[in-house]
Amino acid sequence: MTRRETQVAIVGGGPAGLLLGHLLRMEGIEVVVVERASADYVLGRIRAGVLEATLTDLLARLGIDARLKAEGLPHDGFFLADGEKLIHIDVGGLTGKTVTVYGQTEVTRDLMEAAPERGLEVVYEAGDVALHDVESDAPWLTYVKDGVEHRIDARFVCGCDGFHGPSRKAIPDSVGRVYEKVYPFGWLGILADVAPCHHELIYANHPNGFALASMRSPTRSRYYIQVPVDEDIALWPDDRLWDELAVRLGPEAASRMTRGPAIEKSIAPLRSFVFEPMRHGSLFLAGDSAHIVPPTGAKGLNLAASDVIYLSEAIGRFFKSGDAEGIAGYSDRALARVWKSERFSWQLTTLMHRFPETDAFDRQMQQAELDYIAGSRAAQTAIAENYVGLPL
Ligand code: RFL
Ligand code: PHB
């Protein structure tokens, strides 16, 4: 077994792990990231598309935003569609802020490419990652690469290993508390090299279920439809999926929708999940390892960004002055923002989807809420300020 030391060991090289790694390196802190998958596999996961200013500002602060500035699409509004009625949420006019459409894949690629020049070491294809002595001041990690076992001793371990990773599981049941809501449906997503049907996103509530028209660039579209959680993807050849999108998004969007072969097609289950606390001894959780939101509010990646901003401040303070106050307060500080995004994502999911148990009364509630939103600047402002991201 090889053995080495670092100041901070990060489990997981997704957006949370890479952002945290870069932030800590900027403070001169030694970091090693261990990632189970290969770099190509991480880049192959098609996920988020909407970045809050929290995240774009962070990328600017890191100086890793050249491509984002050149290729990111600023969006200052989106639509909620109820049948044929379109409600425009004028995010820019109501909040003075915008979001940016730029794929998670591209953010991850930019962070990966900047890693070597900034001394951020990422070990890809690290198998059997295990956390040890996380309650002590001397936690350590083990992993296996190319058949050889390695040990990394650190002052802190940061669990940025997503919902299924080992970090959260290293916190004993007696210490942690789980809050969870599993929705009875998923999103079937399609990525295709065709022009988007509209320059803004459309979130639609249709009797057949939810649909979303999104994009990655002026020539690449991303669409989703709500499907039962156990749906067989083989039931959705491209033509059927395009037909269904045309029905759910309504005639106006359908008339401008260009069809094309799927580059990627997958089903993601929807879940709300929070694990408390986000720190145990010398172990911190950040991003999807601690919390999941349904994608309706476009908040998952953005929450990973606010977590790592708080965490890097806390760790930076500790190494600079030995001050552990930030570390002690990390979990409460992060969770305060997490719960507000959980609430927004749950609210928008409940408003825009058809649940198997939706009855006539529930449907009237959705319609009344959408009518209220359509006629109230206050209601539109509440949605807009959550969508652009609450203050840090
Ligand atoms: P990730 O991206 O899951 O990365 C975790 C990393 O940890 C690695 N890992 C391990 N490494 C070592 N050892 C182990 N045993 C390990 N187990 C796992 C994994 O390989 C992986 O590389 O979590 P992270 O970094 O916290 O980032 C979170 C975001 O990925 C997630 O919140 C967003 O994608 C959610 N999300 C959206 N967020 C937004 O802010 N805006 C959006 O528009 C948006 N749209 C979406 C989404 C998520 C979706 N899906 C598929 C769940 C749309 C969809 C469809
Ligand atoms: C996406 O483009 O993948 C996307 C956009 C908005 C969401 C979720 C996903 O709310």
Overview of this structure, please?
The chain is built from twelve helices and 21 strands. An eight-stranded mixed β-sheet has the order 7-6-15-16-17-14-18-21. Strands 9-3-2-13-20-19 form a six-stranded mixed β-sheet. Strands 1-12-11-10 form a four-stranded mixed β-sheet, with no helix packed on it. It is globular. It has a domain at 2-75 and 98-179 and 271-349: FAD/NAD(P)-binding domain, CATH 3.50.50. The longest helix is centred in the C-terminal third of the chain and has 28 residues, at 325-352. Helix 1 packs parallel to helix 9. It is of the alpha/beta class. Bound molecules: 8-demethyl-8-dimethylamino-flavin-adenine-dinucleotide and P-hydroxybenzoic acid (PHB). Residues 11-17, 34-37, 42, 47-50, 104, 126, 129, 160-162, 164-166, 187, 189, 268, 287-288, 295, 298-302, 304 line the site of 8-demethyl-8-dimethylamino-flavin-adenine-dinucleotide (RFL). P-hydroxybenzoic acid is lined by residues 48-50, 201, 214, 222, 295-296, 298.
Summarize the structure.
With 392 residues, the protein is an alpha/beta fold. Helix content is 37%, strand content 30%. Helix 1 runs parallel beside helix 6, helix 1 packs parallel to helix 9 and helix 11 packs across helix 12.
Q: What is bound: which ligands? A: 8-demethyl-8-dimethylamino-flavin-adenine-dinucleotide, P-hydroxybenzoic acid
Distance between the termini: 42 Å
Number of helices: 12
CATH architecture of the domain at 2-75 and 98-179 and 271-349: 3-Layer(bba) Sandwich
> What is the class of the domain at 2-75 and 98-179 and 271-349 in the CATH system?
Alpha Beta
Could you name the CATH topology of the domain at 2-75 and 98-179 and 271-349? FAD/NAD(P)-binding domain
